[in-house]
Amino acid sequence: MKRLIRNLGLLLALVTVSLMVTACGNQSLAKKNVLKTDQQEKTITWGVKADTRLFGLLDTKDNKIKGFEIDLATALTKQMLGKDAKAKFIQVTSSTRMPMLKNGNIDAIMATMTPTTERRKQVAFSNQYFMAGQSLLVKKGSSIKNVHDLNKQKATVLGVVGSDSVENVAKVAPQAKVLQLTDYAQAMTALKSGQGQALTTDNGILYGMSLQNPGYEVTRGSFISEPYGIAMNKNQKDFRLAVNKALKQVRASGEYNRILHKWFHNVKGFDYKEAAKE
Ligand code: GLU
C-alpha cells in the first residue's frame, strides 16, 4: 500500500513537471519576437514542401530541397537580414505544416498554402506570392476532361490530407469518391497504379508531376482560384510586415520574375502574368 502511494506520488510529480515544461515552452513561444531572434541569428527557418516538383522537391543526390519556393524564401531571407543571412529549410507536408508553425518548429510556412477563411482564423498570411488554380491530372486520353466528368462518372479522385483541394473537389463534384493520401509523391504513385482516375490539386503542382510523368496531362482550365501566401503566427506582426516589405522589393528588383522563369520555363503554356498576380 505504502509503495502504491509512493508510486502515485512520483507519477503526480512527473505529470506536474511535464505540464510546467509545456506551459513554459508555450509561454516563451508567445513572448518570442521572431523578427528580432532571426535578425540576431541571421537565419530564418522556413517550412517547405519536399514532395512537390517545381515548388519544393528533395534532390536525393545532394540531399537539398530545390524549387521556386526555396529560391524565393532564400531571396526574402537575404533581403530581410542581409546577404550573409541563412535560410534554413524544414520539410513539411500539407497536414504537418500548421502544427509545426504553431509549435514553433518553423518561423513561417512557404508551402503552396492558400489562405482560406478557416486557416486565417488560426494563422496570419503574407501578401500573395503565387497565383494558382485547382485542376486535375489524368492519364492522356482519359474520358475525364474536367471536374464535371469526374462527377458524372462517379470517378475516384486522389488528393492529399491537409490540402484544401480535397474539400474543394468534394463540393464541386459531390458524386466523385475522394481518396486521401499522405503526400503528393504517394498520390502520384496511387494514380499510376490505378487507385483513382484523377489526381487533384493546384495546376502548378500538377505541371511538375506531368513533366516527370509524360503519360499524364493537366486538364484545361482550373475550377477554383488558389493563391499562395506565407503563413506566420498571428502574434508576429513585425515579422509579417518585414516579409511583405521584402516581397515587394524582390518583385520590384526583377528577382521574383527571374526565379519564376527559372522554374517554369519548361512548362508549356505557363501563364507568367497570372502566376505573378498580386
Ligand atoms: N493550395 C492548396 C492548399 O493550400 C493545395 C496545395 C497543398 O496541398 O499544399 O491546401
Summarize the structure.
With 278 residues, the chain is of the alpha/beta class. It is built from twelve helices and 14 strands.
Explain what this protein looks like in three dimensions:
The protein is of the alpha/beta class. The chain folds into two domains: 32-129 and 229-270, Periplasmic binding protein-like II (D-Maltodextrin-Binding Protein, domain 2, 3-Layer(aba) Sandwich), CATH 3.40.190.10; 133-226, 3-Layer(aba) Sandwich (D-Maltodextrin-Binding Protein, domain 2), CATH 3.40.190.10. It contains twelve helices and 14 strands. Strand 3 (56-59) and strand 4 (64-66) form a beta hairpin. The longest helix has 30 residues, at 2-31. The protein is globular. Glutamic acid binds next to strand 11.
Question: Layout of helices and strands, plus pairs?
Answer:
Blueprint: H1 2-31, H2 34-41, E1 43-49, E2 51-52, E3 56-59, E4 64-66, H3 68-81, E5 86-92, H4 97-102, E6 108-109, H5 117-122, E7 124-125, E8 130-139, H6 147-152, E9 156-160, H7 165-172, E10 177-181, H8 184-192, E11 198-202, H9 203-212, E12 216-218, E13 224-228, E14 231-232, H10 237-252, H11 255-264, H12 272-275
Parallel strand pairs: 1-5, 1-6, 9-10, 9-11
Antiparallel strand pairs: 2-3, 3-4, 7-14, 8-11, 8-12, 8-13
Features:
D-Maltodextrin-Binding Protein, domain 2; 22% strand; six-stranded mixed beta sheet; single chain; 278 residues; 14 strands; alpha/beta; three-stranded parallel beta sheet; 12 helices; binds glutamic acid
